[in-house]
Design brief:
With 182 residues, this protein is of the alpha+beta class. It has a single domain, classed as Alpha-Beta Plaits, CATH 3.30.70. It has a 4-stranded antiparallel beta sheet. Strand 2 and strand 3 form a beta hairpin. Helix 1 crosses helix 2. It is globular, with a radius of gyration of 18 Å.
Length: 182
């Protein structure tokens, strides 16, 4: 039996999300397609907080915190893009595979490890030598990113009350997030 997807109506959860193009066609190798998806990503910002993204030739990875629900945010992105691709790019076929995969971010370490995964995806796929050179990722600074969700930030060590637990370790801030982690 397939596990039931948890309710994502809570706006305080952050997710790593991935979804693929129909038939894994490399639509986003074309600049017009990739730029249109960037436009859609920006257009629907009121439905989620965006922490990282990468648009690969045949799939997309996002790190986001939905405002309403994860399903609604993905529906807006995929549906909005499909609608505009059919109108503006004269596409008549399917754009996306059905569904998406998601992973709920548990803590700050999990958050940063997924940012590194997203940023290094074009390098691993040999689309560029350095992650900073890839035009369709959060490192390109095309779209402003939202700060680390407050619930993931570690508590200050000076608030340690001397109890049985050790104080939380201070995490290293990933270079791409230094400005937003303050």
């Amino acid at each position: 039996m397939r596990p039931r997807r948890e309710s994502t109506r809570q706006s305080n959860q952050t997710y790593f999300v991935g979804f693929q193009t129909a038939g894994r066609k490399p639509f986003f190798r074309h600049e017009r397609w990739a730029n249109l998806f960037l436009n859609i990503l920006h257009q629907y910002r009121s439905s989620y907080l965006l922490h990282a993204y990468v648009i690969m030739p045949d799939h997309v990875h996002l790190l986001l915190t939905p405002v309403e629900s994860l399903e609604r945010s993905i529906q807006l992105l995929k549906g909005g893009f499909s609608y505009r691709a059919k109108r503006e790019l004269d596409w008549s076929g399917d754009v996306w595979q059905a569904g998406f995969s998601d992973h709920r971010i548990r803590d700050l370490q999990d958050f940063y490890s997924h940012i590194v995964y997203i940023e290094q995806n074009p390098v691993r796929a040999r689309l560029c030598e350095r992650a900073e050179d890839y035009l369709y990722s959060s490192l390109s600074k095309t779209i402003a990113l939202d700060a680390v969700p407050q619930r993931l930030k570690p508590q200050a060590v000076d608030s340690f009350d001397g109890g049985a637990e050790a104080p939380p370790l201070q995490k290293q801030v990933h270079p791409s997030m230094r400005a937003s982690a303050k």
